[in-house]
C-alpha cells in the first residue's frame, strides 16, 4: 500500500513539464531592474530614482552635460564651446563657474 501512494504522488508532480521554468520571467525582470539600478548608481545619479524634478550638471574634461528629469521624462543635453543665444521664456536662474565650482543664482 505504501508503495502505491508514493507512486501516485510522483505522478502528480510530473504532470506539468514547464513547472521548472514557470518563474523564469519573474527572475529575468528582477535581474533587469537590478541591472538598471546598478547602472544608475555606477553613473552617480541616484537622484533619478526619486519622484522629484531634478537637473544634474556633469562636468568632464571634454564637455559639460546637463541631465534634466521632469516627471517621467529624462533629457540629456550636451553643451558646446560655442555661445548660443536662444529666447526661451522667462529667465529663472543664472549659472556661474568660479574656482572650479558651479553656482546657481535663482532670480
Describe the structure in your own words.
By secondary structure, the protein is an alpha+beta fold. Among the domains are: 42 residues, no CATH class; 32 residues, no CATH class. It is 29% helix and 29% strand. It has two helices and five strands; from the N terminus they run ααβββββ. The strands form two sheets. Strands 1-2-3 form a three-stranded antiparallel beta sheet, with no helix packed on it. The protein has a two-stranded antiparallel ribbon with strand order 4-5. Strand 2 and strand 3 form a beta hairpin. The protein starts with a helix and ends with a strand. The mean pLDDT is 76.
Class from helix and strand fractions: alpha+beta
Biggest sheet, in brief?
Answer: 3 strands, antiparallel
Distance between the termini: 87 Å
Radius of gyration: 27 Å
Query: Which strand-content bin applies to the residues?
Result: 25-35%
Which strand order does the major sheet show?
A: 1-2-3
The number of strands is 5
Helix content: 25-40%
Written as H for each helix and E for each strand, in order along the chain, the element string is: HHEEEEE
Unreliable parts: none
Query: How many helical stretches?
Result: 2
Shape: elongated
Mean pLDDT: 76
Task: Give a brief description.
With 107 residues, the chain is an alpha+beta fold. Helix content is 29%, strand content 29%.
Amino acid at each position: 500500500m505504501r508503495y502505491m501512494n508514493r507512486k501516485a504522488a510522483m505522478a502528480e508532480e510530473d504532470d506539468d513539464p514547464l513547472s521548472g521554468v514557470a518563474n523564469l520571467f519573474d527572475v529575468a525582470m528582477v535581474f533587469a531592474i537590478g541591472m538598471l539600478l546598478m547602472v544608475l548608481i555606477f553613473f552617480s545619479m541616484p537622484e533619478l530614482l526619486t519622484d522629484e524634478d531634478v537637473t544634474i550638471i556633469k562636468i568632464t574634461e571634454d564637455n559639460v552635460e546637463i541631465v534634466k528629469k521632469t516627471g517621467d521624462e529624462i533629457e540629456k543635453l550636451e553643451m558646446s564651446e560655442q555661445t548660443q543665444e536662444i529666447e526661451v521664456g522667462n529667465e529663472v536662474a543664472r549659472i556661474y563657474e568660479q574656482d572650479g565650482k558651479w553656482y546657481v543664482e535663482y532670480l
